[in-house]
Each structure stands twice: as C-alpha cells, then as structure tokens.
Amino acid sequence: MQLRVFTVDEANSLLPVLEEVFRTIEFRKSKIQEQGQKLEVLGLLWGDQLSDPSSPDYEQYMIHKRAIANDVSEIEGLIQEEIVRRGIRFPAGGIENGLIDFPTTYQGRWVYLCWRAGEPELLYWHEPDAGFRGRQEISEIEKREMGRESAESIGDDTDLDI
User: Fold this and answer.
1) Which residues, in sequence order, are CB contacts of 110 under 8 Å at separation 6+?
2) Number of domains in the chain
3) Does 139 fall in a domain?
4) Residue 149: inside a domain, yes or no?
5) What's the domain range around 74?
C-alpha cells in the first residue's frame, strides 16, 4: 500500500474532524468504564455464578456486556474509518493520550507530523524512531518543505509503522 504524504496544511485541515473523533472516543471510554463498574458490582454479588444463565442478574450482566462490546466496536470503527483509512498513524498510547502522527517527507526521508488532541494546530514533528519525546517544533522553513516530496521519490517506508 502506498503511504499518503501529508503537508502541514493538509494535516491541519483534518484537525477539526480528529478533535471530534477524540471527543467521541472519550465519551465511549467513559461509558465502557461505567458499564465495567456495574459489572464489578454484579460480580461481587454473584461471583462466578453471574455468567450462568440461571443467575437472577444474568440479564443485567448480558446488557452490560453487550453495551461494552458495542462501545468498543464503535471506537474501533471510528479509528479505522477516520484515522487509519485516511493514512494517518495511530501510535501506541494514541487512544490514551490523544496522539496522531501524519506521515510526511522531509529532506529525502520519511518523518511524522505529530499532533496531540487539544493542540490548536500541528506544531511538532519527529523522526520515525523518536516518538513523542523526540518532538521538535516545526519551523516556517520546515512547514513549507514538509510533504513536498512524493512517496515514490523517497522510497523505502519500512521504518514507518502505519
């Protein structure tokens, strides 16, 4: 699969959509936590018997389990449709910390434009092996140059884990 190369402006144009995605993910995560707490209470009351269909609270148990599965599926769908499908990297810790990486090219190599939910625009980039801690501010020169080289001209993208 050919990687998409983002310019800073192209990536910035997607930030409102991504902010909404992260708000929805946070909402779904809070619902999962609520349902999990309800399951914990039922588990304390019934122990291993809770998952037995003859348990008096089995129906409630199943309602909470289905609600969690639905919310997890919703989060997975959002990530697939709104992030992965667009060619955006969702790094380890991305869901917990609201992190997104946009693959781009700079001076003959692949790098990532790095954004964290809540930041007003793309302000940072990092090398593929540097991660969040290796973020560097995007200078005006870098902003103009990043993403101007095609994926074909850069070639090897094995350092990227999209």
Assistant:
1) 3, 103, 104, 128, 154, 157, 159, 160
2) 1
3) no
4) no
5) 15-86
Domain membership of residue 37 (yes or no) is: yes
**Mean pLDDT by 10-residue block, N- to C-terminus, for the chain (162 residues)?**
85 96 95 96 91 92 96 95 91 88 93 95 94 93 89 66 60
Triad 98, 87, 151: Cα angle to 5°: 130
**Domain-located, residue 44:** yes
Task: Output the pTM of the full model.
Answer: 0.83
